[in-house]
From TrEMBL, chains A, B:
Protein name: Crp/Fnr family transcriptional regulator
Domain Cyclic nucleotide-binding: 30-115
Signal sequence region: none
CDD domains, per database record: CAP_ED
Residue ranges the record marks as coiled coil: none
A Pfam family annotated for this UniProt entry: cNMP_binding
Length: 187, 187
């Protein structure tokens, strides 16, 4: 499972074998089956998760049981309830598996430790967070000003492989449109 | 203008006088009057801006001239077109002043330089970006699942001082609701 993580870090910063082994020693592994929960509302959120294999979603369920999807994560992406993770509070999101998944888990304590010990890892996580910030700003703009059709087309263009793997009901929930609207757009 | 910046950094990391003077030497200053533009669409985005005094907004204007507000920034906040800044491309947002403003400007080159030279500054910007990421996730969830009333109340709770300073038309544009809806909510 470690080769994927090394490639992922090395997209931003080169690492020696020794450095990578040291970093890897701060991760634990986790395997989950399709439909299993990684995090449920009110859980204490200990870890951020790097997806080695599989597909997950993080969502908020309102009082009427309606689901709003905050993010998907497939291979080479990270997922957790970031608000709860960074502030070490309990989850307001549910995270579960759309496919069988293999994960590498990094606690906040270990993340802060390797960031503090290795400047290049602090650099890696700063860059990742900057990229994530920009992606979220684009999504906000798209929620504010784009039609359902435009949002659908943007997502299809950005993440074509998601469409092969994620049921349409969930895509609709991510885009904030009804299942019926999505069916009309994608037919 | 520098005391505000020092306080801002020291909320996350302590600095010696020498370190702070060195950091400050990488910033330039800018003063703008109310209504003046800081960034216009298609401009090359060179800097990120720390607000020492004043109030600005970053927005997207669509083909019909309708304005969608990405963010406000007042004292102790940062503002730029982050997509353009991090990828060193041209702006898709407009940024202008709601009040006379005093700014400290940091180029991407200088930001990367001080992050690389001072590990604690890389740490500062990682932490800031993490906090920003979580705030944007909360806004996405609020756009997906909250009513106009709830969004208005959340904003009022989070940033009460914004409401004293920002015209209601702009608050409506930030929340993605009509001016009429907002008037009804806030009356």
């Amino acid at each position: 499972m470690s080769i994927e993580l090394r490639k992922h870090f090395e997209k931003i910063t080169p690492l020696t074998d020794q450095e990578f082994d040291y970093i890897l020693s701060h991760f634990t592994t986790k395997k989950l089956k399709k439909h299993q929960y990684l995090i449920q509302e009110e859980d204490t959120v200990t870890n951020d998760y790097f997806v080695v294999k599989g597909l997950l979603k993080a969502s908020h369920i309102d009082k009427e049981g309606k689901e709003y999807i905050m993010q998907f994560a497939m291979e080479d992406w990270w997922i957790t309830d970031y608000q709860a993770y960074f502030s070490q509070t309990t989850a307001t999101l549910h995270i579960n598996c759309i496919e069988d998944s293999e994960l590498l888990c990094l606690s906040l304590q270990n993340r802060d430790k390797i960031c503090s010990e290795l400047h290049k890892i602090e650099h890696f996580f700063r860059r990742k967070s900057n990229l994530g910030y920009v992606a979220l700003q684009r999504r906000i703009l798209s929620l504010l000003n784009s039609s359902a059709k435009e949002r659908y087309e943007q997502l299809l263009l950005q993440y074509p492989s998601l469409f092969q793997r994620v049921p349409k009901t969930l895509i609709a929930s991510y885009l904030g449109v009804s299942r019926e609207t999505l069916s009309r757009l994608s037919s």
